[in-house]
Amino acid sequence: MRKKVAFWIVMILVNVSLGVVSVRTYRDLNARIANFETHQNNYYKTYAEMQKVLGFNSEYDFNNILVTEQDLNTFFNYKVYVRTTVVLGVPDKLKELISGSGQSATKISEAPAMVIGRHVLMASHVSDAEIFSRQTIGLMTSEGALGITISLKVLKYSIALLAPDGSKHSLKELYRNKEKDFALFEMPENVSALNFPFEIGKNDDLKVGHFIYLNGKPKINSEIARPGFVTSLVSASPSGALLEVKKNDNEFGLSQATDQGDSGSPIVAFRDGRPELVGIYLGWIGRGDDNGRNTRSRALKINVAVDEIKAKLGIDLRELQY
Question: What percent of the chain has pLDDT over 70?
């Protein structure tokens, strides 16, 4: 009997001891959880403050502090070109005026473009047969040299994507807006090309001073990648009289130095360091003899092309880019 009583006394004491230990452990656990939550809150507060100082605000950046080398290399290594070939008929009376021409003259142009899904987006004027057909002929007169622009008959027109492996693939034109200066083509189903590596941005979020980069293809100089800033949210160019200016809400101004061959080049802005496609380079601002042509440039707002393509064709390039 005494052994049973002793056994139960021991068991009670053990359970009481375990209960005391459990209570203390529970209190210590609560304290640890509270300390962890405090530490976590302080960490997130500090992290948020650090992000604020660095410029993390879900908006486009005014500098390149947050831009990574990897993203820049990805952007600069993105090379997709489209070759446009136009064969023009040359009338007999003009053969002597167009040097080296026979019955026809061939014009070839290679311009940057962006592949999005199975679609190719580029500037219109670098692939427009009508523009290629307009040729300027120089004549010598008693008053000096005179340039006359005429339109030749287009005998043949072809446009092809130049793949990185050197192969060429014919493109089908789906849509073209000559006034806004963009065109959309479709690749054959069996062709895969390097898709543009970043998502399509939103021009409504752009502000004057936002940092941007252009990935070009100039014919004259070798500066492919050029940094710059948004200089205006509309483009403006001389129209008619010297003091008259034509504004275009479909375009924005940028500070990059540009040259012939850059047309169609992609332009990216950076949202908290992440690149987004915001524009297609179209040309410089001003007349052809304007000394500021290489420093005052204009670009098509990407929203203009993407929204119109979706409205007219039902193709949402934003969805295809994800």
Answer: 68
Q: Read off the pLDDT of residues 208-243 as tens digits, 9 standing for 90 and up.
A: 999 999 998 877 666 788 899 999 999 876 666 555
pLDDT range class, residue 291, cuts 50, 70, 90:
very low
Residues 6+ apart with CB under 8 A from 192: none
Element of type H or E holding 213: strand 211-215
Q: How far apart are CA 157 and CA 268, in angstroms?
A: 31
Number of Cβ atoms within 10 Å of the Cβ of 88: 22
> Structurally, what CATH architecture does the domain formed by 69-77+197-321 represent?
Beta Barrel (2.40)
Q: How far apart are CA 104 and CA 249, in angstroms?
A: 40
Length of the chain counted residue by residue: 322
Residue 304 Cα distances to 117, 227, 233, 264, angstroms: 19, 23, 13, 15
pTM of the model: 0.77
Question: Are the folds of 69-77+197-321 and 81-186 the same?
Answer: yes
CATH number of 81-186: 2.40.10
d(CA 123, CA 182): 4
